[in-house]
Amino acid sequence: MERRYFDWAAAAPPETAVSTLLEMEVPFGNPSSKHTEGRRARKALEDARQRCAAVLEVPAERLYFTSCGTESNALVLHSLLVRQKRYSGGAALPALLYSAVEHPSIRENALLLERLGFPVFCAGVEGDGRVSERSLSRIIAKQGKPRLTAIMAVNNETGAVMDMPKLTKFLRNIDGPPIHIHSDLVQAVGKIPLDIQRWDLDSASFSAHKLGGPRGIGLLYLRKPLEPIYTGGGQEGGVRPGTENTRGALALAECLERRAHPAVVAETYALAVERWKLLISALTSMERCRLIPVEREAEDPRFSPFILQAAFHGIPGEVMVRSLDDAGFAVSTGSACSSGAKTRPVLAAMGLDDTLSFEGFRISQGWSTGVEDIEALIEAIGKILREL
Ligand code: PLP
Fold it and tell me: What is the set of domains in the chain, with CATH numbers?
């Protein structure tokens, strides 16, 4: 049976050019070795870093290769642990503020810090799933100014796009010690126009496998180096010690060049909107269908046209996922990292009740999704509704 893939937010299908590159010979030496093989590997790694930097328009020395988006996020959050020593002797521990719709790689690490005694606060979102100045000011008025904030740019379950320039401006204008502003850009890169400098971010996370690249390689942008939570051989400026993944770094550079150039993003975005128009208009004409949030439209810049959350009244999301899988379509509930979870924190934060939350399922598309895939999906959903 032909398979049609609508779970790009969990993992993008591998790009042929990147897979070819992965099979090619890359310098195998350890980039830290001083001999010719080592120097060749170092050159390849630094070339990869330069290429990533050129696409992301940041200085190459501000980029650190990691193993994945999760590690990039965790390195930033847990840097608070190392800062802690500076706050010993009576000074208050630094506070972390994260949004209620963050990916588990932020949320769970924030909760871990809370268990370790750090002041950790969660900012709510509006009904559309977006963090607002209002939600930030409400929590900051109550809990005080944080030292670190984590607000993602594009939500992986609903596609909500945060107004990062507005939010960072708001945070920068609060009196008191400076805030480190971190943003998880895993679902944003290659999907919406990015501007790390203009968004005034102190750090940002990326992952190759959402861009058609391999697992095991991520990237962290840091405006200033941070103290690592673990040490080792000092690789990646000591921020992420461990022998570097040269092959992965080259693959990530290739993915960014292929998918994250502004002109490519603009074109991919426009095509995605056209396909989403088709899907959204078909879904909203189906009985029992509710989009999450309900006002969702394809051309609305508040939402990424690559991710859509929908629900059918009386049909659990899990049932839709299984029925569509049987029919040859890959969709999902929530994020792959929390599949099987008993709660849907992102949807709950938007004010959805449990029943609706558990009816929700995610459809996500990418650059190679075709209009015919959307048409086939619409037909399959219609058939499932008639049969169930
Ligand atoms: N952040 C977001 C928004 C994600 O969607 C994901 C993966 O689903 C991650 C972080 C984690 O990335 P990785 O799978 O590379 O650890």
Answer: 4-13+262-387 (3.90.1150.10), 16-259 (3.40.640.10)
